[in-house]
Amino acid sequence: MADGPAPVPVGDDIARRLGAVWRIEGARVIATLTALTRDVALAEDLAHDACAEALRSWPRDGVPANPGAWLTAVAKRRAIDAWRRQDALAERYARIGSTLRESGDDELEPIGDSVLRLLFIACHPVLSTPAQCALALTLVGGLSTEQVARLFLVPVTTMQQRIVRAKRALSAAAVPFEAPDPHEWHDRVSGVLRVVYLIFTEGYAPASGATPVHRELADEALRLGRRLVAMLPREPEAHGLLSLMLLQSSRFSARVASDGSPVLLADQDRARWDRQAILRGRAALRRVDALGKGRGPYAVQAAIAEQHAIAPSVDATDWERIVLLYEVLGRLAPSPIVDLNRAVALSMAEGPAEALDLVDRLTDEGALAHSPLLPSVRGELLARLGRPDEARAEFARAIPLVGNAAQRTVLDGKLRALDPRHPEG
């Protein structure tokens, strides 16, 4: 018996489905439209118009079988309409129009090529590194301006201005929207690798929203990482980044409980870690060493992740080795985040008192002022030192700075556990 028509989702359900489609397909849609229009800002506008059309028509007509292709086709038609109204670019209109199917089930360009092309365009050397990353994260990562602002620990208005200036700079420099030649890759690789890792980071530990992980974002970053390794087989940091992402992704299944709550490292069932991902990650790290050019920041971070991956428990982890690796990382890529992570490792290797000295120095320097990381780590150390009142104050200071509801729940639990009125306090 033939199935009846599929139920047509309405309201918030359509918005959620469109959001899910955009997270997965958005970068490909933007990449295809950018290749078509040679204008990244116009491509974004067209894609947003297509999303608005989806919100109007999908409740009536149902969600198409290939939503990404549908959005691309609608956006292309909008572009053609605009060109027609301008009575210009008639030749381009004819060429593009001939490629559209009447059904609207348009074909996307090859996935990897189009997304990576857009990524390399966004990481053009005419832009500063922060501008490259901000623009690429919105275009390729599909992140909102608020999400990107949280990743960079800056106000949303600052990030909005940064993205607008980046688009204007690309237009002013008349940047050709074509894949750069191999001899141009070198100046862009660093930015491209950083963007891919930031996309992975947003998937691994989302800075906002309600879920502890966005697996599809992390998987997309892994896919991009594999393609970059294929493109750049002699680039050690490409292998280092892939190794790092594989080793971290090996813990995904153990990081979320059955009720959707996050599971901290100490409480994870290590039997659920993906051993194949660990093997592949360690193999990628060996390829870094085989290239004989030394380990860069991503490879050193992969070496840290490797220590966690091979340890049978938190207590049996080689924390002295991890402290040493963080010291190396601090020399290669100094940052307050690296210092804070070194403090955490130091607390496990030598005790919380030594680590607290390092954290207090960061506090005195005003580092990470808009991040919950510093007060939450300080709260942990103070709790271990038997100073619950100060620990509660630090957790209370951290909680409003957390944008992700799942992470906020974890800190709420730690705060309650220190309350003397709480059964465990």
Automatic annotation (TrEMBL):
Domain RNA polymerase sigma factor 70 region 4 type: 120-170
Lyase is among the record's keywords: no
Transmembrane segments: none
Domain RNA polymerase sigma-70 region: residue ranges: 28-87
Domain DUF6596 stretches: 188-287
InterPro entries, A to Z: DUF6596, RNA_pol_sigma70_r2, RNA_pol_sigma70_r4_t2, RNA_pol_sigma_r2, RNA_pol_sigma_r3/r4-like, WH-like_DNA-bd_sf
Alphabetically ordered keywords of this record: Sigma factor, Transcription, Transcription regulation
PANTHER family on file: BLL6612 PROTEIN, BLL6612 PROTEIN-RELATED
Recorded family membership: Belongs to the sigma-70 factor family. ECF subfamily.
Protein's recorded name: RNA polymerase subunit sigma-24
Source organism of this protein record: Microcella humidisoli
Phylogenetic classification of the source organism: Bacteria, Bacillati, Actinomycetota, Actinomycetes, Micrococcales
